[in-house]
Structure formats: C-alpha cells, structure tokens
Amino acid sequence: MERRRAKLSKSEQMARVRSKNTDSELALRRAVWKEGLRYRLHTRLPGTPDIAFPGARVAVFVDGCFWHGCPEHYTRPVRNAEFWRAKLKRNQARDKRVDRELDVAGWLVVRIWEHELRDDLNACVRRVRRAVSRRRGQRSRNQPFQT
Ligand SMILES: [Zn+2]
What we know:
This protein is mainly alpha-helical. It has five helices and three strands; from the N terminus they run ααββαβαα. It has a single domain, classed as VSR Endonuclease (Endonuclease, Chain A, 3-Layer(aba) Sandwich), CATH 3.40.960.10.
C-alpha cells in the first residue's frame, strides 16, 4: 500500500531540512579526527558547538548558508517572506549572543560556512588545527608548571 505524500510548501520543506549533523559537518569531524585532533561532541556549552576542544577551549560551529544567512548564498524565500525574515534575524541574533557568551567564558569561536566545507574541506581543517594549536600554545605559556 502506498501512502500519498502530502505536498509541502517550500517553507515547510526547508523547515524539515535538519540543521544539525549534515553531511558536511560529518565530513569535517572525520577529517579533523584524522588529523589527530580529539574533540568532544556533546558539550553543554552555549549554542552547542558542532565540535568542541575543551582543553584548548575552541568551539567550532558549522553554519548552514540558509539558516545563518550566508552573504553569498542566502536567498530570501518568496513565500512567507516575513516569517523567514524574522527567523533569520533570530538566528543571527542568537549566533552573536552565543559568540559573546563563549568569549566571556574564555572560548575561541571558529565559525565555518557550510559552503566553505564543500569548497575546501582541507582549508577548514587547517583553520581548526591552527586555532587549537594556537590556544594550546597560549595555555602552556600561561601555565608553565601544569602538565
Ligand atoms: Zn554560503
């Protein structure tokens, strides 16, 4: 028996697009892990970073081009324009708040657009690695006697 699928509006379709655990996020995690960088996934940090390095205090977010309003790829939906405009505004305000909260707590925030992962995954991995090693260097300089 085949159930007829109800037709979804464009905005309903987009609302169904999951904003977490996308293929590109998973690709970044795999690549970062292969680099020998050991991260944590489920942290109780503001904004729930996609990847977190508690030792180095680096939090990495992968921002979807649509959900976070990428300047290169965000397209305004025509239907329910007001709803989507308000939603984007809320998302961007939340991103800023999360960045501030993490900064205050001593975390370095790395934000990567989803399209950057698609375009050049290795460059994104290098950015993460640089951030982590920079922070590790700072911490060991600041706390020379800690092992
Ligand atoms: Zn983009």
